[in-house]
Amino acid sequence: MLRYLTSGESHGKSLISILDGVPSNIELNIEELNNELKKRQSGYGRGQRMKIEQDKINILGGVRGRITLGGPISIEIGNKDYENWTEFMNPMKEIDRDTKRVSNARPGHADLVGSLKYDFDDARNVLERSSARETASRVAIGAICKQILKNFNIDFVSHVVQIGSVKDEDLYEFDYIKENVDNSDVRCVNKEIEKQMIEQIKIVKSKGDTIGGIVEIRVKNVIPGLGSYTQFDKKIDGELAMHLMSIQAIKGVEVGIGFDVASYMGSQVMDEISYTKEKGIKRITNRLGGIEGGMTTGEEIIIRCAMKPIPTLYKPLQSININSLEKYEASVERSDSCAVPACSVVCENVVAFVICKFFLDKIGGDNLYDINKNYNSYIKRLGDRGWKR
Ligand SMILES: Cc1cc2nc3c(=O)[nH]c(=O)nc-3n(C[C@H](O)[C@H](O)[C@H](O)COP(=O)(O)O)c2cc1C
Ligand SMILES: C=C(O[C@@H]1CC(C(=O)O)=C[C@@H](OP(=O)(O)O)[C@H]1O)C(=O)O
After folding, report:
1. Most buried residue, 31, 124, 246, 300, by most Cβ within 10 Å?
2. Looking at the 3D structure of the chain, how many domains does it have?
3. Which residues bind FMN (predicted)?
4. Is any ligand 2 atom within 6 A of the Cβ of residue 132?
5. Domain containing residue 254: CATH number
6. CA 62 to CA 149: how far, in whole Å?
7. Domain around 255
8. Model confidence over 301-312: pLDDT tens digits?
9. Does residue 82 sit within a domain?
């Protein structure tokens, strides 16, 4: 079973993760992995931290000469900022506990409840781990998963469809998104709307406020039958939602037309089925986003995620001191004003992990050769039943 754990603090020495269950003989493109990390760091609205960090993957185990060995892969991403934080973060030595203290809980962040739950008088101990710095690890893991799935033509893309009230309402083809998204400062496909989104972020930032938005993730060339209707925890939509909702600041996940299913009649929601000798079994539409009964249908997967605005405001909200309980303005930490573009990269890679997990569960095999054999045999059987690539 494909699984991972992440460890590390935002201003600690490095982020460490272990990805277990990767088959052997997968060739890794390190440049491509680093490119994915770089994409997560960009996007208009990010704060000063992204000027300090230049995330690079350092694989410590499980890979030899860029080829996976079938054992757990250990990954390190260094925090350059640690150089400035050693005296406050060093795990092995006495540290200065007074200078970087956070006492006035930021509403919307984990500060207050984390301090109560873990019995801390300093929310620094909470925010170091609750910080979305951790998403760099998740991107590295998802990027490896993408490279596994590339062997089977499965491809991923994501883009920003809304920032605040500015929306990109067009429905684009997968390839069109792919061609245009990386040229945009906010990962928006439409250049006109991109300008409006940047303007929106600027205005909000100038007021000391923050803003959220919606991102869309698409997966192309997925085979039918990943996931299962037979048990609640085998349903791929459930697992996707769980992984996506666990990303810092994600407050909603939709598959296909999502919440709109509630407003339409059945005939306007279900995707009718057709069969022709040339195209095989196909859906005439794809409103349900490529998932039925907890299984992939073979149509493109379409998911949207809503990100709330960044909780740290330069014009702080009312709060309390976690120790004295007196009324205070929330602490102000160096912060992003909008991280929706970065979040689209995170969501895309988190989806890649889940798809890869279910793909390996379905197809099986410890090494690329066996997986290829099993894959081809499944595709052949589906072909005999009328499904075509
Ligand atoms: C890519 C990314 C960057 C983020 N940057 C910040 C930030 O600079 N400041 C901040 O307060 N929150 C930031 N957040 C959001 C917080 O980490 C998040 O709101 C917090 O951990 C509380 O979790 P919750 O919103 O899921 O409840 C960011 C989230 C993501 C995904
Ligand atoms: C470090 C990252 O994001 C951080 C996420 C984050 C938060 O509270 O979630 C707060 C900020 O941390 P800092 O105070 O060090 O600037 C962001 O920069 C990153 O995405 O790599």
Report:
1. 124
2. 1
3. 129-131, 248-249, 293, 308-312, 334
4. yes
5. 3.60.150.10
6. 18
7. 3-384
8. 999 999 999 999
9. yes
